[in-house]
What we know:
Layout: E1 4-7, H1 15-30, H2 32-40, E2 42-49, E3 55-61, E4 64-69, E5 77-81, H3 83-87, H4 112-123, E6 126-129, H5 135-145
Helix pairs in contact: 1-2, 2-5
Amino acid sequence: MEPIIDLAPGAEENPLAAHFYQLTREHLARDAKRAADFRALRGSVLVVAQDTGASLTMRFDHGRLTIHDGAIGIPSVTFCGDEQALYRLPEIAFHRWPRIPKLGILHRRQSAPLRELSRLVAGGDLKVYGLFAHPWLVLTLLRILSRHA
């Protein structure tokens, strides 16, 4: 089954929504493992750029993604931070196996974006609400969005 990705009416004017829409389409088209992860996702993710006021809701339903402009419903996970930090989320690199983020001395350059985002989270500049309640959803979403296969 092919992944279905839709932009809800009004979301095409939101540059953040258009960015995540395009990124998701590109990554699912070129990687079958990401498409399998995508089909397993169910839940909603709210992304809020505090500095610009832009927000979007990504609603996943087993192989279908609808991206809405603004907040829709009660999200499972919320990413809240400056737009620059939100655009850096796809920079996190993942191992092919066991499909977790790359960390440590052996992956110093590839783990730099994750370390930077961790500093933002620790400093309160990037908030991830629902991370401990839905860690699988967060990791799977970041793996799908990652520019590094």
